Fold this sequence. Notes:
Keywords: Membrane, Transmembrane, Transmembrane helix. Helix content is about 75%, strand content about 0%. It is mainly alpha-helical. The chain has one domain. The mean pLDDT is about 85.
Amino acid sequence: xxxxxxxxxxxxxxxxxxxYTIALAFLAYGVYxxxxxxxxxxxxxxxxxxxxxxxxxGLAPQFFFMPVSQIVSQAKDTPEKSTLxxxxxxxxxxxMICSLLMEWLYD
Length: 107
């Protein structure tokens, strides 16, 4: 197989790797700051939520290369991987909301 930047599968692979790398960076920062700089629990939860969001985006990198109208029209057809991506993405949103509520309660 010849490597070319024009290949859609190659672009999707690169986008997925970038999403997973950003998620790993969020997790590394959250753990480092929590243990060494005594970061608050809401901030750690926010870092984990952001990491989970990026993992969810990395599960379906083809969405980065589709028009929005096509994504919305295909919302009814949910294959198994898309369902997993939806659950992971919703978990990330839930963690972000929980972190905001915890921050509001701690202040």
